[in-house]
Write a structure and sequence with these properties.
This protein is mainly α and 263 residues long. It folds into three domains: 93 residues, no CATH class; 75 residues; 77 residues, Arc Repressor Mutant, subunit A, CATH 1.10.10. The protein is built from eleven helices and four strands. The strands form two sheets. A two-stranded antiparallel sheet has the order 1-2. A two-stranded antiparallel sheet has the order 3-4. Strand 3 and strand 4 form a beta hairpin. 36% of the residues are buried.
């Protein structure tokens, strides 16, 4: 999880890029740097319809910030799930998590615009709403330098495009994008709970962690998810008004990933 919350235009490298992410995770091996992975992708023709420059851009601007931080920890967790052919809907929700973490402009758009609109039973999201969010971010100093009007328009489109790629809205079209039902899947909850735990988040702090809000969940709903996971035998939880204690079953993220792949 990156501590840098500055907004960037990196989404232009490819938005959600679901298929490309799956291909790169299959190709990636522990120790691969972004440059090494780029060369492997080029040599093996992973992106046969793109130039070498574009292939490097996909790896270095899109894949690496999302999946190769912390010595490739996200890639190491996700690669076995790809190789075990985890259902696409589950993979997409996990890719969504790592994209929103790496691209804070997207994560904040989801929590500050998408979910309030969803909760209000709005029919869709518009470019105007995305642009208004970007302008507020500029006024709040979220960018390192002032963006041009053309950049604001482009990034607003990227935000909506990402929502479409990850299933929060319908995809395609330049007008309003219809909001789709988006509910956290149980495999996603199991992955996120353990990912936070092995990242050093305490049991007490875990239900309040902001990552859950990417899926529209506040603390009471998170506790409900955790109790459901406990009911399925993944850990033991004791939760009261002012205390959360979890007896974790899996000693490592690798063991958790095995459990996810077997479900």
């Amino acid at each position: 999880m990156s501590s840098d919350r500055s907004y960037t235009t990196q989404l232009q490298a490819g938005l959600g890029m679901i298929d490309e992410t799956i291909g790169l995770l299959r190709l990636w091996e522990r120790g691969d740097s972004p440059s090494k992975l780029s060369e492997k992708a080029i040599q093996r023709g992973l992106f046969s319809r793109t130039t070498a420059r574009r292939a490097r851009n996909i790896v270095e601007e899109m894949f690496a910030p999302r999946y190769l931080l912390a010595q490739g920890r996200p890639a190491a967790a996700l690669k076995p799930l790809v190789e075990k052919n985890l259902p696409g809907d589950d993979l997409i929700q996990l890719f969504f998590l790592h994209t929103a973490r790496a691209q804070s402009i997207f994560g904040d758009f989801v929590t500050e615009v998408y979910w309030p609109r969803y909760s209000a039973a709005a029919s869709g999201l518009t470019r105007a709403e995305a642009e208004a969010f970007v302008y507020r971010a500029l006024d709040n100093g979220n960018m390192r330098k002032r963006w041009s009007e053309s950049t604001i328009r482009r990034v607003s489109g990227y935000l909506l495009g990402c929502c479409g790629d990850f299933g929060l809205t319908d995809s395609g079209g330049r007008g309003e994008r219809a909001i789709r039902r988006f509910a956290m899947r149980s495999r996603t909850a199991l992955y996120l709970a353990h990912d936070l735990h092995f990242s050093g988040v305490t049991d007490q702090a875990l239900p309040q962690h902001p990552d859950w809000r990417l899926y529209g969940l506040e603390t009471p709903e998170v506790l409900k998810q955790l109790r459901s996971l406990a009911h399925n035998g993944h850990f033991i939880i004791q939760a009261a008004a002012d205390l959360v204690q979890i007896a974790w079953k899996y000693p490592s993220m690798e063991e958790c990933v095995r459990a996810i792949a077997q479900r």
